[in-house]
Amino acid sequence: MTVLARLVLAIAVAVGLAAALSPGVASAQDSDYPNKPVTIVVPFTAGGATDLSARLMAQLLSLQLGQSFVVVNKAGASGMIGMGSVASAPKDGYTLGWGGNSPMSVAPHLIRNPPYDPLKAFAPVGLAAISSWTLVVNPSLPVNAVAEVIALAKSKPGRLTYASSGNGSAPHLMGEQFKAATAIDVLHVPFKGEIDGFNAIMADQVDMMMGSTSTTAPLIKSGRIKGLAVTTEKRDPALPDLPTMTEAGVPSLTVEIFFGLLAPAGTPEPIIAKLSEAMKKAIADPVYREPLEKSGVYAAASTPEEFAALLARHNERWVAIIKRNNIVNE
Predict the structure, then answer these.
(1) Mean of pLDDT values over 200-224
(2) Are the CB atoms for 165 and 197 separated by under 8 Å?
(3) Confidence band (pLDDT; 50, 70, 90) for 330?
(4) Pick from 216, 181, 180: nearest CA to 198
(5) Which H or E element spans position 313?
(6) Secondary structure (H, E, C), 215-235
(7) Which domains does the chain have, with CATH numbers?
């Protein structure tokens, strides 16, 4: 064999070895995935829409892929404990995370040394569900539309109040964005949780709040609080009579609550692709869609790239609000 032939052979062997080691190229192990149980980490306590959507998805992925997908709840630090455990897990597709707004676009930007970068530590698999926020007010407040709230706030600068589920929480940031978008001055009153904020509205202690529609809808329908608008691009089927923020004249307040599946960054692309295709089939299944819709959450599929773009948009939005208002949570 000539020197040139040996050199060509050596290069071919090196290229083949690199391809075999590359996370983006299928291996025999990747094609066999999954060959053991898979854990889906939900970064919040059991119960609620986040947990429900994850468990429904786990059930259907188990049926499709022939292995158990088991939901494990790891709550704490606004979801960062659970998602942090996913970020540091082996890059083999056997530990996945069910990420949502707080741990994937808000909480890491509120502390100086976050446990992960939400845009670099994960490989998005796909969006799974969305819901809206609803602007709600005390029933005794003399308003029936967003424009009327804005006018009332401008007539009484600094006197109206808005509740949140804590400093740095999504309702807090939504409230700050509402203030900035409409040039109003209202006072932030933080509570320990969303339900505490609703209770304060019903007790006539605060005037308004941005709340998750899955929670606000029953309270609005019972007349205990008054709903004015939802934040999704289209009207929410749970509250079809309420306009969107765009219809109400505040288009910059269009933002969704989201849930989706993520793997640790570096997980082989064939595994991501297999999970993504299985998710799309699951999301089209009434077994997944119907229980969610009853809770005010709606199935929504995407490609990994589309989910990555959604995460980028959310991070850009909340970072700007956090910096503008100097919000920290330490």
Answers:
(1) 94
(2) yes
(3) low
(4) 216
(5) helix 304-325
(6) HHHHHHHCCCCEEEEECCCCC
(7) 23-130+258-325 (3.40.190.150), 132-253 (3.40.190.10)
